[in-house]
Design brief:
Layout: H1 3-28, H2 34-55, H3 65-76, H4 78-86, H5 92-98, H6 102-114, H7 120-138, H8 149-172, H9 178-189, H10 191-200, H11 203-206, H12 211-241, H13 244-248, H14 250-264, H15 271-284
Helix pairs in contact: 1-5, 1-12, 1-14, 2-4, 2-9, 2-10, 2-12, 3-8, 4-8, 5-14, 6-8, 7-15, 9-12, 14-15
Length: 299
């Protein structure tokens, strides 16, 4: 499969996987606290990827350690806690919608830090899609149409973190394979912090093998295996065959999936939200051209 076809296949697959993550977070919150959901999500991914990390430890990019830590913390640790905390106050659909801000943050972070250049066509496509995001946001959130400032700010902060991680990976970590990079992030960099965070929540003292806890663990495990481990491998691969801006457009399709799951779970869906979803897809056709990238050569 050539790179152009591969990037679109990865984009669609990631949209489905990550778009389903918000409903899994919501279901996990019925059984665990937001901090436990975040820590378990990272920890389970680390346990699963540990064999890969140990078998490939010689490939650990020591000279890029600071960039690996930055990408891990901003892309795979902080947001894992911010999303569950926010979803205690807003619907899973709205969480998916706010996450669609990522392409905007990628443009800002890429321009200010990494000197990425984007074409007018890409910017136009992003703005068109963001118009659709606005329609989704104001088309009803399943909670009576009310918006709370703090959870929205938390979601925006998480989305900014994703943008920082994405641009860092593209600029400094492309020499590491997608699978190995994911393994190092979860098994080496974030394993101990996730265990520590889980311990502070009292999880290890309070957990028992009840039906409620096992059901919650099932939801978190699905979230971790597919929405974290597998998805991050696919995302790193997408960054290899495309640009950071193109890779970030997965967040423009995710709300459609998130709203669909929310609708099945009893969340409200309006005509305006459907219109917004259509506009988001229309905006993606303007994102086919590749941005010119000028990287700094110094570490």
């Amino acid at each position: 499969m050539n790179a152009d076809k591969e990037k679109w296949v990865l984009l669609m697959a990631l949209s489905i996987i990550w778009g389903s993550s918000f409903i899994l977070i919501k279901k996990s919150l019925d059984h665990f606290s937001p901090y436990q959901v975040g820590a378990l999500r990272v920890l389970i991914a680390g346990i699963i990827l540990m064999p890969v990390a140990l078998s490939k430890y010689k490939l650990f990019p020591k000279r890029h350690l600071k960039w690996l830590i930055l990408a891990a913390v901003t892309g795979n640790f902080i947001p894992m806690f911010l999303f569950p905390i926010a979803e205690k106050e807003v619907s899973s659909s709205i969480a998916g919608i706010i996450n669609s801000m990522m392409p905007i943050f990628v443009i800002i972070v890429g321009s200010l830090i990494w000197k990425f250049e984007t074409t007018r066509q890409q910017i136009l496509g992003t703005l068109i899609s963001f118009t659709g995001v606005c329609l989704l946001a104001f088309g009803g959130d399943g909670e009576g149409g009310s918006f709370k400032v703090v959870p929205i700010l938390l979601l925006l902060a998480a989305t900014l973190c994703y943008a920082i991680s994405t641009t860092t990976v593209k600029s400094r970590l492309m020499e590491v394979s997608s699978t190995v990079l994911s393994a190092f992030v979860f098994a080496f960099i974030l394993f101990l912090p996730s265990v520590t965070a889980l311990a502070f929540t009292g999880f290890f003292n309070d957990f028992s093998f009840t039906e409620d806890n096992m059901t919650g663990l099932m939801f978190v495990s699905l979230l971790s295996v597919f929405g974290t481990g597998l998805a991050m491998m696919m995302n790193y691969r997408l960054l290899k065959v495309s640009s950071p801006l193109f890779a970030s457009t997965v967040t423009l399709l995710m709300p459609i999936v998130a709203i669909g799951w929310g609708f099945l779970d009893g969340e409200k869906l309006s005509v305006m939200q459907l219109a917004g979803a259509g506009i988001i897809i229309a905006g993606l056709i303007f994102l086919r051209s590749k941005p010119k990238i000028t990287d700094r050569k110094t570490d």
